[in-house]
Automatic annotation (TrEMBL):
The chain crosses the membrane at residues 52-75, 81-101, 108-127, 133-154, 161-178, 210-229, 250-277, 283-302, 309-329, 335-357. It comes from the Bacteria. It is found in: Cell membrane. Pfam families: BPD_transp_2. InterPro entries: ABC_transp_permease (IPR001851), LivM-like (IPR043428). The keyword Secreted does not apply. Keywords: Cell membrane, Membrane, Transmembrane, Transmembrane helix. Its main location: membrane. This is Branched-chain amino acid ABC transporter permease. It comes from Parapusillimonas granuli. Residues 1-35 are annotated as: Disordered. One of its GO terms (cellular component) is plasma membrane.
Length: 370
């Protein structure tokens, strides 16, 4: 048989006479169909594994807290921890999910507080414009978002220590501007008698109503962060945190995602700033001083930067130390207690108190059967 006839026979299968008996087909090694496996643990809903029950217990405890606590613990400890936790949550969102450590979150909150004092009601009647509280608070939050967006535009093209230094410089510049400007910010005296609104017989200046007001916005902020980080934007933001160069190669606008993250963090900080000025009933340059900027970082690190709940745990620990450390040491040496606690947590648990809790719970949990 010639080569051409051979190729023709192979391509057409040849005649039945020439083919002879067909060889047996090799056995198939395709795996048999198996039943679909259960969904992995990571893809199960948030309420799986008793999480819903834990959330319900925590929420019930927070709601019942004023009934068992004194006015001092309700207002000075509870409300203050929730407010500082909201501001620290804005930093935890930027650092934990965006990889951007910003020291200007207290500056953004302070701007919201100053807007409330300037456009709302205060004892400095020659400066305050006495707008309705709802209009002044809305403007305060909007300007806080705008300020955070501008800070993001300036700082997002840097990384690491450069971001920290830029945001610290912005915070220090704002401090000196408020301290030296008397026409708008009333200098080092600031503003006083900035009270939350009253609704008929309900006075939000009372400890219990103000606690529930702070709790409402704290829960709303926490839920917003938990939702945002699960959206496509939040997932992409975490991708820029892990590998910005790869995200750029995939076509993502890394700078735009980071600026948007700053804007959202500014929303949280603005809400916290309005509550903070209502809590203190005043605002001054000391509210946004260097120590206040660093305190927010300390709170976020103590609780755990990678955990939204850690911001509130760190705020509670900070407030408790702030109020009761003077019983153990002189007031002038209060920062020694804060610094010592900060160093101990960093040494034994870089992921904060919440990370330490997860480690301890993992060690105590009995080994699962293989």
């Amino acid at each position: 048989m010639s080569a051409n006839k051979w190729r023709h026979a192979v391509s057409t299968g040849g005649s039945a006479a020439n083919k002879g008996p067909s060889p047996a087909k090799p056995p198939s090694f395709a795996p048999a169909a198996r039943p679909r496996a259960a969904a992995p643990e990571a893809s199960r809903p948030a309420w799986a594994g008793g999480k819903l029950l834990r959330y319900a217990v925590v929420l019930a405890a927070l709601l019942a807290y004023p009934a068992v606590a004194s006015s001092f613990f309700t207002f000075q400890i509870g409300a203050q921890s929730l407010i500082l936790g909201i501001i620290a949550l804005s930093l935890a969102f930027l650092a934990g999910y965006g990889g951007m450590v910003s020291l200007s979150q207290m500056t953004v909150a302070g701007i919201a507080g100053y807007v409330m004092a300037i456009f709302g009601h205060s004892a400095v009647s020659q400066i305050s414009m006495e707008w309705p509280w709802w209009l002044a608070s809305l403007l305060a939050v909007l300007l806080a978002v705008g300020t955070a967006t501008l800070i993001g535009i300036v700082s997002v093209r840097t990384d690491g220590i450069y971001t920290i230094m830029i945001t610290l410089a912005i915070g220090v510049a704002m401090f000196y501007l408020a301290q030296q400007n008397y026409t708008v910010f009333n200098g080092f005296q600031g503003f006083s008698s900035i009270f939350p609104p009253r609704f008929g017989t309900l006075d939000l200046r009372d400890p219990v109503p103000f606690y529930y007001l702070s709790l409402f916005f704290a829960l709303l902020s926490y839920a917003a962060v938990k939702y945002i980080v699960r959206t496509p934007f939040g997932i992409a933001l975490q991708g820029t945190r892990d590998n910005a160069r790869r995200m750029r190669a995939l076509g993502f606008n890394v700078a735009a995602h980071r600026v948007a993250a700053h804007a959202f963090a500014g929303l949280l900080a603005g809400i916290g700033g309005v509550l903070l000025v209502w809590y203190n009933a005043r605002i001054s340059p000391g509210t946004i001083g260097t120590s206040a900027l660093i305190n927010i970082l300390i709170i976020a690190v103590i609780g755990g930067l990678r955990h939204p709940l850690g911001a509130f745990i760190g705020a509670l620990a900070f407030v408790l130390l702030q109020n009761f450390a003077i019983d153990m040491i002189d007031r002038e040496r209060f920062n020694l207690i804060i610094g010592g606690a900060f160093l101990l947590i960093l040494v034994f648990s870089p992921d904060g108190l919440l990370g330490l809790w997860h480690r301890v719970r993992g060690l105590l949990r009995p080994a699962r059967k293989q």
